[in-house]
């Protein structure tokens, strides 16, 4: 087991280097880099002060700017060095978990990411918790009542929820309950109210939950179908196994058969997939949901960083999330062994 974990950890290094390298190469060919954007801002600033009336809406080179000023901008962003030098310096920094400084936010990448995580963690945590809390019992009930009217109706409901995009559902929720057209029951934006700091402890909890109802609902409804169907199919497969028939033949109560025998084996794929589901939910971010409900999270950060060509944030967050994703996959594999001791990675490797 230890040898397997060590090999997986060592294999993460070339994987991360490959992902970061590919992204770095792509950024070198994307037009409108940070230097060009800064030059454009300076030129537009001069236009607003009456320097010339043709500021335009795009980048027109360094026209109207002192070449020395252009060189200062390049040095500020590190573009006075060759690409290979910048690439090697980036890898050296990442080896010590130094993600660099944001070009435009004047903060370290760590600070930028840390400031956005509360929103994404909130959405991800509630989404995963509610998905499993609803889908697992529902999937078990569907497996026990397989082929019944209850099974058919719930299948239609979860599939309809899966088919409706979260953004469309969010717009509908805002129209109905956010004061858009009908009732003003929930706030339209933000994670907390403006007077959040002045509230009591219980008031802060209620205010937070009050703000999370609509965005979490829009995020979670589409996730019910996958976990529900997975739970149902896993239970149906386990119910047909020999040990279940043997337990029933010995006169074991049906409740004991389902909850003590079937559940323990059927829960293996659900439990082992939980770390990846949780990490994926709060790291990926949901740009459309965050934009709709004015939540400043990782989805909005990723979009803004790409648009503004804030390469340290783009590459740094990609490096960090790739590392976390690979570690999560390793944790999921280890969970297999913990949940089901019959699995032995050493024998698989041989």
From TrEMBL:
**Domain of life, source organism:** Bacteria
How does it sit in the bilayer?
Answer: Multi-pass membrane protein
Q: Which parts pass through the membrane?
A: 9-30, 123-144, 156-183, 208-231, 270-293, 313-339
In which compartments does the protein localize? Cell membrane
- Please give the residue ranges the record annotates as the region Disordered: 43-62
* Residue ranges occupied by any ABC transmembrane type-1 domain in the UniProt entry: 117-332
InterPro entries recorded? MetI-like, MetI-like_sf
Q: Which residues form the signal peptide?
A: none
Which residue intervals are annotated with compositional bias (Gly residues) in the record? 52-61
Q: Does the keyword Phosphoprotein apply?
A: no
Tell me, what's a Pfam family for it?
A: BPD_transp_1
| Alphabetically ordered keywords of this record | Cell membrane, Membrane, Transmembrane, Transmembrane helix, Transport
Q: What protein family does this chain belong to?
A: Belongs to the binding-protein-dependent transport system permease family.
Q: Which PANTHER family match?
A: INNER MEMBRANE ABC TRANSPORTER (PTHR30465), INNER MEMBRANE ABC TRANSPORTER PERMEASE PROTEIN YEJB (PTHR30465:SF66)
Tell me the protein's name.
ABC transporter permease subunit
In its UniProt entry, the species of origin is given as: Paraburkholderia translucens
Provide the organism lineage as a comma list.
Bacteria, Pseudomonadati, Pseudomonadota, Betaproteobacteria, Burkholderiales
């Amino acid at each position: 087991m230890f040898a397997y974990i060590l090999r997986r950890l060592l294999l993460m290094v070339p994987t991360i280097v490959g992902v970061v390298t590919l992204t770095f190469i792509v950024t070198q060919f994307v037009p409108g880099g940070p230097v060009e954007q800064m030059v454009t801002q300076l030129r537009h600033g001069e236009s607003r002060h009456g320097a010339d009336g043709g500021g335009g809406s795009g980048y027109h080179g360094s026209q109207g700017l002192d070449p020395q000023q252009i060189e200062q901008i390049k040095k500020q962003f590190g573009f006075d060095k060759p690409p290979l030098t910048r690439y090697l310096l980036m890898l050296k920094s990442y080896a010590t978990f130094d993600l660099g400084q944001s070009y435009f936010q004047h903060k370290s990448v760590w600070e930028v990411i840390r400031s956005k995580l509360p929103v994404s963690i909130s959405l991800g945590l509630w989404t995963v918790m509610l998905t499993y809390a609803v889908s697992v019992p529902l999937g078990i009930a569907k497996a026990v009542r397989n082929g019944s009217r209850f099974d058919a109706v719930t299948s239609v409901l979860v599939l309809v929820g899966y088919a409706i995009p979260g953004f469309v559902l969010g717009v509908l929720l805002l129209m109905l309950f956010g004061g858009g057209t009908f009732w003003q029951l929930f706030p339209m934006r933000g994670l907390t109210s403006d007077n959040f700091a002045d509230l009591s402890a219980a008031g802060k909890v209620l205010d937070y939950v009050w703000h999370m109802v609509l965005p979490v609902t829009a995020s979670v409804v589409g996730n019910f179908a996958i976990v529900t169907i997975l739970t149902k199919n896993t239970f149906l497969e386990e119910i047909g196994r020999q040990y279940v028939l043997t337990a029933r033949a010995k006169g074991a109560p049906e409740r004991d058969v389902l909850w003590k025998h079937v559940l323990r084996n059927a829960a293996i794929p659900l439990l082992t997939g939980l770390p990846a589901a949780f990490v994926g939910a709060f790291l990926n971010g949901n740009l459309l949901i965050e934009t709709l409900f004015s939540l400043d999270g990782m989805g909005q950060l990723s979009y803004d960083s790409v648009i503004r060509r804030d390469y340290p944030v783009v590459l740094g967050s990609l490096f960090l999330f790739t590392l976390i994703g690979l570690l999560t996959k390793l944790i999921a594999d280890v969970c297999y062994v913990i949940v089901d001791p019959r699995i032995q990675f050493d024998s698989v490797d041989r």
